[in-house]
User: Fold these one by one.
Assistant:
Number 1:
Amino acid sequence: MRASRADTRRRRATTAWAAALLVVLGGVVTASGVERPERPGVRLAFRDTPRTHYLRALDAPGKEPPWGQQPEAFYVALEANRTSPGRVPTQAEKIKVTFDLSDAKAVAVSLDPGDRLDGCMWSGALVTCTPKDSTTGKVKDIASGEYAYAAHLHLLPKKQVPKGPVGSLKITVTSSNAPTIRHTTQLVNGTPHLTTRGGAGGSLPDPIEPGSELKLRPAFGNDGEIGIESDLSIVVDVKGQATLRRQYRNCRYDQADAPKKAVCTIPGPLSVGAAYETDRPFTAVVDKTGSHGLITSTLYPAPNTPSGDLLPASAPRGTGAPIGFRPTDSSRFQPFDKDELSFLTTRRYDQQVNGFTLKGKVGDEISMDVMDVDGYFDGDTYLTLPEGLTLIGHRDGESGDDPFCEYYGKKRRTVLCPTPLNVHPTLRFRIDKRVEGARGTVFVKPDPEHPDPDLTNNTAPITMEYLD
């Protein structure tokens, strides 16, 4: 039987309406007529790719720069993010990184075996890298919510190139399913070597009173080959039982009340041979029941401040006059780019802990330093992990000098992180499943030889944040 024209029109109208409805609901119809969810979009972004990169001058003296300031390798790290909410897995695929050195004719590229593992090839002024997964050998993909190093180069100034700016490096990143992104880095021949007054591992010589204030004037110098011409960032970070006062209007703070972190932008430059301290102090207030803490001050060229240290533009600012620099004596400075100060209070027998949050995706294996949560511990720490996690302790073949948190007791519910000696123990775990509202605890036992004046702060919660 042949269908009438009216029947055909009704079927076409019905099919068009159903297809439109599926588009609205986020689905598509395959040739077999089965609905399949649309693949979510993904975008790439540069993560901590520097705005200024310093090259080791060929005529530089043999002095090694401070740890963390080695300038030879230039890395490109990328992060992938979804363009719409949802839980359908997505990833940026078939990534390619192109470096254009046509504006930096005084710079040479050295491709070592590690660069070739990134799939890098050099032709004229262009270096093209198709990074590969070291396990599968396939072109590297980056899953949404993650970041990865995509390529790195060794850049060297050519002979008899004067110190100073030597052009720019243009970077283009493409993907088969993400929009193209670009970045420009200014190249400078010569490296600054930062120094500090306190260096790493500094501590107050005597215990202080709980509730007291600490006045801090971070100080930095430049003992390098070239000055930092950009603005400067000072990041002040407090761990343990203390907070900062929200003081200066050129500083952002991580929260309006009792902040733990400040990021301040101060006009440069920091010339070779110069040394400065802040012209006003940062004020840290020790908790009234506080027993210990750690305060870290780190200096960066402002355009190169790592994303992990930045605060959003919406973060609260101080209301007082801006903090700046004033000259100071650098004769006793040490080769570090951060200043650390730990303290103990007279409340030494009050064992206490702070709660913290574990973050990750289902299937992730995560390692973290529990001591970073609270800045300082002088005894064993005990954990009960949130539901859905499995502890991964010391593996066969790993050095016995590297301590790990391990299960403690027959029921394997309690985890012991041993007293830190030269190295802090590592908490390593796997997220097996998502359990909404899962919580655990971190706790310390009272000192058996001395009364603990406050048992209420010996235990704190561990919460979960799932990244998907």
Number 2:
Amino acid sequence: MINRNALRTALTAGLGNGFASITGLPDDQYVALAVLSVSSGTYGASFELGRQRLLGTVLGSILLLIGYECLHELPMAVGLAITMGCLRLLGGVLGLKVGYKVGGMIVVMGWLVHEGSLATWIPLRFFWTALGVILMILSLRLFWPARGLVQCLGRYGELMDQLQITFTALAQRLQQSQGVAGGPTPPSYRQLRATLQSARAQRPALLQELGNQPQRHPAYLLLNSLDAAASRLVTMVGGMERAVPTSLDSQLVARLHQAEADLLSCMAAQLQRWAQLLRSSRGLPTPPARPLDLPLSWLQLTTELNDPLANSASLERLERIATRLLLCRQAEQAIRDGESSWRAIMART
């Protein structure tokens, strides 16, 4: 029930409280509150939460000073309502999703509790808040570093693992019809889509870590390439689930399906290499040393398709075989394109 993020947050909050107690300055509880409010699993997400909290603190402090000086003669409820309305309006204009809540707490607490000491309370509040944010961001660098790139690559590595299992199962299903035993139930198309969406959900936090113009960063370009290849491979699995293999009542059909099974096995082995590289890397992963090796049976497929016996099969069977072979060729091309882009990106770094 205790993970690294929880331990990191508790340690950082404790260090912040210890430092605040040593200084003897008042209102030191805001250090721990800032640490808890910006704690997240990645550096990018915490950086964005900290930015919003600081902007909300500044906006709330400015509106509190203006509102209290200009509206203190009005009934307190009216003055607070006007100030809070302005805060919400300006927060929306500035694009604050969390910061305006912090600003609202400053307005309410300053107006109701610290109205006689705003000149000292506001600077202290901002100082403790900024300190808490800085400590939390530093802790993400020092204590069990949580990087968005590592998490994104890990999720895509998990997806490649699932695709490898699925491709192996598709090959075994073809061999099973020839008397070879099949393996465990592979992930379905829906499960693969869910993993792909989960990997994509990690990317906004990564963009916050890449600084200015993240679209030009090699990490962003690599993730785009991996996402494009993974999307094409997942789509291929959906098409293969709909195109059930035909019965092997002729030697020609058996050879066609054998070539398909051989290619699926080769692609599964290559995707396993992808997954190992993506999971083991702590930075930009290097592309696979070996490109995708096409089996001889797949390379000789043109000769098999030119066999006059192919035209003797029914139109429905030919369409189903053609659909499966086309999907396999698209998956092969997706892997080749992904590796080509991967190498090009790493060559520019």
